[in-house]
Write a structure and sequence with these properties.
- The longest helix is centred in the C-terminal third of the chain and has 10 residues, at 506-515.
- The protein has helices at 25-33, 132-135, 375-378, 444-448, 506-515; strands at residues 2-9, 12-18, 43-49, 54-60, 68-73, 78-83, 92-98, 104-113, 123-129, 143-152, 157-164, 171-179, 186-192, 197-204, 214-220, 229-230, 234-236, 238-250, 256-271, 279-282, 297-301, 307-313, 316-322, 328-329, 336-343, 349-358, 366-367, 418-435, 455-461, 489-495, 517-520, 528-537, 550-557.
- The N and C termini lie far apart (105 Å).
- A hairpin with a 5-residue loop joins strand 21 (297-301) and strand 22 (307-313).
- The chain folds into five domains: 2-33, no CATH class; 43-134, Immunoglobulins (Immunoglobulin-like), CATH 2.60.40; 138-236, Immunoglobulin-like (Sandwich), CATH 2.60.40.10; 240-358, Lipocalin, CATH 2.40.128.420; 366-557, Sandwich (Jelly Rolls), CATH 2.60.120.
- The protein has an eight-stranded antiparallel barrel.
- Helix content is 6%, strand content 44%.
- The protein has five helices and 33 strands.
- The protein is elongated, with a radius of gyration of 38 Å.
- It is mainly β and 559 residues long.
């Protein structure tokens, strides 16, 4: 038998007895080397991941002979030597930060050394350094809505409100970086995960302007990482425009069947959620009021100032496209001149020609308050005698267009078929939406019959006369071209588009009825609080009553 003394640590020795006949290669190695002294090995080794770096933390043993710790990785091709300075007896905490690591997994070996060449046994640990690939697995906090609240047309700057969606569990915050429009100053806002809304001031309104972008990213703190992870930047931009144009409707034989002109229509253009630059979404096709994917289009601003157009109409992709007439964007004035085609079933189509200019009004279009209330009491003398007792006026304004419980105003025979609305505040009216009464199982005859309004006039006033005024205050307008009463302003004559006369399908007709008919008001219309609605045609000769499924007014507040 042969005895070998192996020192495994400070003041620790182990005597190993074995038979020479049973020695394997490892035993023989120690026998050949003779007695060796090993320094104390790093204890309780831990690793913490970071962005392009890793932090190692351990406890040095009580061995007083340890002078440095050598850390190896990459199969010992890379290493650093970390000096150890003892400041206390016994175990002592130590750490090192290894920078400049490419993203990936690493195996580290820690070996204690001194000037005598004595070494410790290695302490080994696995750890990862993260980078762009790992960060790409995290998503920025979703945005539920982004909108304007204030606007300065002179500086083309705005106040923007962001409504945030629910963040992921490990999201600790969201960062918004942008430049102030007035000063160019970089602004950084950190939004904690509990905040649901953020308001950003002095945001630029200039389309396709890099300095007006909002750079949004979210911050994560996974596990025991030493660095927060920041997602890739999500760019956002809003630009508010005013549109004027013409929508021309053609049948399958290319015959023009209708032409609708509009002016003063607000449109919001937003950076599209795609990787490419210079791509934006517009929230309204022609003068329609759609704000969803069912009625919006995408514009691509090309290097030669031409504009590519694709998009949705009535929920169908690629039903909007460029026409032979070129659409353009002026990068200096930020004006868009657009010409696009809206494809419809059975070979029908519409051509839209419109000009979008940066908004010049400091206020934004809003929907008038609802419900308006029971007009039997709020507007004396108008429709005062025989309103249907079971269908009060307020039922028409429950926010559900085309409901079966439509409003049925009724007058004595010979009275004007009108009703007067209180908008509750003065508005510079911009548009009105009229929904016909559409039954649950509907046909085209329901939409254009059913005593639904086909043609109507509107008059407005900022104030009403004393309610004790004689009945002549409420008499019908004798001159629809503009002469009524000194304090009533003529707001226009409007006619529901008869899609059945253009060869539309029943499904299209019913869909339009459920979506409502949108009418643009003249830009010159003055501020009004009260609107008088006259039915001029409901497909019946007896105009003593009519149906309204729903009616909505939009306008710009005056205070």
């Amino acid at each position: 038998m042969k005895k070998v003394v192996i020192a495994l640590g400070y003041l620790i020795a182990v005597t190993v007895c074995f038979s020479c006949d049973d020695m394997n290669d490892i035993h023989q190695k120690y026998l050949d080397e003779g007695e060796r002294i090993y320094l104390g090995r790093a204890d309780s080794l831990k690793a913490f991941s970071g962005n392009g770096r890793i932090k190692l933390v351990w406890y040095a043993t009580a061995d007083p002979k340890v002078e440095t710790t050598v850390i190896y990785w990459n199969l010992r091709k890379d290493s650093i030597e970390h000096p150890f300075v003892r400041t206390q007896d016994g175990l002592q905490k130590d750490s090192v930060l290894i920078d400049g690591l490419a993203e990936g997994s690493y195996s580290f070996e820690l070996i204690g050394k001194n000037h005598l060449g004595e070494r410790s046994l290695p302490a080994v640990i696995q750890a990862s350094s993260y980078g762009d690939s790992y960060a790409a697995t995290f998503r920025y906090r979703p945005i539920t809505n982004i909108s304007f609240t204030l606007f300065d047309p002179v500086t083309q700057s705005s106040t923007v409100k962001i409504t945030w969606g629910t963040p992921n569990a490990s999201c600790v915050g969201t960062k918004v970086v942008y430049k102030k429009r007035s000063t160019g100053e970089d602004t950084v806002i950190i939004v904690d995960s509990e905040t649901s809304e953020s308001v950003l001031t002095d945001v630029g309104n200039r389309l396709d302007e890099p300095n007006d972008l909002l750079h949004i990213s979210s911050l994560y703190a996974p596990g025991q990482a030493i660095d927060m992870i920041e997602t890739a930047v999500h760019p956002e931009q809003l630009a508010c425009y005013t549109a004027s144009g013409t929508r021309m409707e053609y049948d399958a034989s290319n015959t023009l069947v209708a032409s609708v002109a509009y002016d003063g229509q607000e449109k919001i253009i937003r950076k599209a959620p795609v990787a490419q630059e210079h791509v934006f979404d517009c929230n309204r096709v022609a003068e329609t009021a759609g704000t969803t994917v069912n009625t919006n289009f995408r514009i691509t601003l090309n290097d030669n100032q031409s504009v590519g157009i694709t998009g949705y109409f009535n929920g169908l992709l690629n039903t909007l496209s460029n026409t032979d007439g070129e659409s353009t964007f002026n990068p200096e004035t930020k004006i868009l001149t657009l010409r696009y085609k809206v494809l419809k079933p059975a070979g029908r189509y519409a051509i839209v020609e419109e000009t979008l200019v940066p908004k010049t009004s400091p206020r934004f279009e809003i929907a008038a308050a609802k419900p308006f209330g029971d007009m039997r009491f709020t507007i004396p003398k108008d429709n005062r005698t025989e309103l249907n007792a079971t269908m009060t006026f307020a039922k028409a304004f429950d926010g559900i267009g085309g409901a079966d419980n439509a409003y049925l105003p009724r007058n004595t025979v010979g009275d004007p078929t009108s009703v007067t609305f209180d908008l509750h505040e003065e508005l510079q009216l911009t548009r009105v939406t009229l929904w016909p009464r559409v039954r649950t199982t509907a046909t085209a005859a329901d939409v254009y019959g059913n005593v639904n309004v086909m043609k109507f006039e509107m008059w407005g006033t900022a104030t009403l006369a004393d309610p004790i005024q004689p009945d002549t205050y409420w008499v019908d307008a004798t001159d629809p071209t503009g002469t009524f009463k000194a304090d009533w302003e003529y707001l226009g004559f409007f006619e529901v588009e008869r899609l059945d006369q253009w060869g539309a399908t029943t499904d299209e007709i019913v869909a339009r009825g459920r979506e409502g008919n949108h009418f643009a008001l003249p830009v010159s219309a003055g501020p009004v609080r009260y609107v008088r609605f006259y039915c001029r045609d409901n497909q019946y000769t007896n105009l003593s009553y009519f149906h309204i499924g729903e009616l909505s007014f939009w306008g710009i507040p005056q205070n």
